[in-house]
Structure formats: C-alpha cells, structure tokens
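Re: that backbone. Tokens:
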C-alpha cells in the first residue's frame, strides 16, 4: 500500500512539473522571447536633431492619416503595430492613432487605440502592462525606448497626461471595459539601456 502511495505521489509530482512547463511555454515564453527580440531594436536618432526642428512646428507637414511609425511593447506581445496621424474612429479601426495636439518625436507623444473588436484592437492587452515594461517607438526620425512609470485609470475628459513635457515620454490611452466614462492611461519616460524602473 505504501509503494502505491509513493508511486501516486510521484505521478502527481511529475504531472505538476509538466503542467508548469506547459504554462511557462504557452504564456511566459512568448513574452520572454519578445523581450529578447526587442533587444535587437536599434535605439537612437536617424538625423541630427540640432539641424531639424522637431516639435509642434513640424506638425504642419503631417497630414490626416499619414503613417508616423511603429510601436512595439514586448510585455504585451505588440510587435511593430502601425501608427497614423489622427484619433478618428476611421483611423483607430485600422491602426494606432496619434493625437495631433501632441509631439511626434521629442516631448510627450500621445497615442490611442481600441482594446476590443475585430480590427484596431492593438491595446487589447494594455491592461496587462507593468511598471518597468519597455516600449519602443520607431519613426523616420529614429527610435526611442521608454520605460513605463505610470499606469492609471482616468476620466474620459482628462487630457492632463497629454500636455507638453520637458522630458521625452510616451502616453498610451485606451478605453476601460465596462466603464465608458473611464480611460486606461499608461505613461512611459525615455530611457537609456540598463535603466530599471522597478519591474
């Protein structure tokens, strides 16, 4: 009888180890691999920023629905998602939208996307992002790496997180499921490699 109990305990132990392995490879490994792949993204400016004014003045050359760049967030398995100028529903149904009142490369960049639906739900996993998660913003001007410092729920008429800032940061906004008057706001600051914000 004791041998049967030991055998049963061994089988249960092996089954638990196997289950943990399956969970790791099904859930954790894709995120791990996405973060490893993101380390190959080259961060830096493509042009001399001193020679080109990149602020709100250059918004004049950006038109409605123009393609601005790509967004990668390894921790939520978002890879090279397209970004276009405008937060109109027609734009958000296809891509991530850029708030025209915010910066494009330097300063505070404001982006919005859906988190549900058939198309344009690029922020469907944004609620799973953590403080310390990395965000990569790739444009013709260059690529910036940000680290998440704020994750909060705000009112749908709260635009304070999209105001101009002296530092470089990116602000991501999406709806909160079941709360039409609320928005999830994630803000990240530009960071050089090696900086850790508590993940």
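Recovered sequence:
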């Amino acid at each position: 009888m004791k041998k049967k109990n030991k055998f049963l305990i061994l089988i249960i132990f092996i089954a638990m180890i196997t289950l943990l392995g399956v969970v790791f490879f099904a859930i954790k490994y894709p995120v791990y691999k996405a973060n490893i792949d993101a380390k190959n993204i080259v961060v830096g400016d493509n042009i001399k920023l001193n020679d080109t004014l990149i602020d709100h003045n250059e918004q004049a050359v950006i038109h409605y629905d123009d393609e601005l760049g790509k967004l990668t967030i390894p921790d939520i398995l978002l890879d090279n998602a397209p970004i276009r100028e405008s937060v109109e529903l027609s734009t958000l149904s296809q891509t991530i939208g850029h708030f025209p009142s915010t910066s494009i490369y330097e300063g505070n960049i404001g982006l919005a996307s859906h988190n549900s639906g058939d198309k344009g739900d690029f922020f469907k996993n944004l609620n799973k992002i953590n403080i310390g998660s990395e965000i990569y913003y790739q444009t013709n001007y260059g690529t910036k790496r940000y680290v998440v410092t704020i994750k909060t729920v705000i009112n749908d008429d709260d635009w304070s997180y999209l105001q101009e800032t002296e530092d470089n940061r990116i602000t991501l906004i999406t709806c909160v499921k079941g709360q039409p008057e609320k928005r999830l706001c994630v803000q990240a600051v530009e960071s050089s490699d090696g900086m850790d914000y508590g993940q």
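The first helix runs from residue 2 to 38. Helices lie at 2-38, 89-92.
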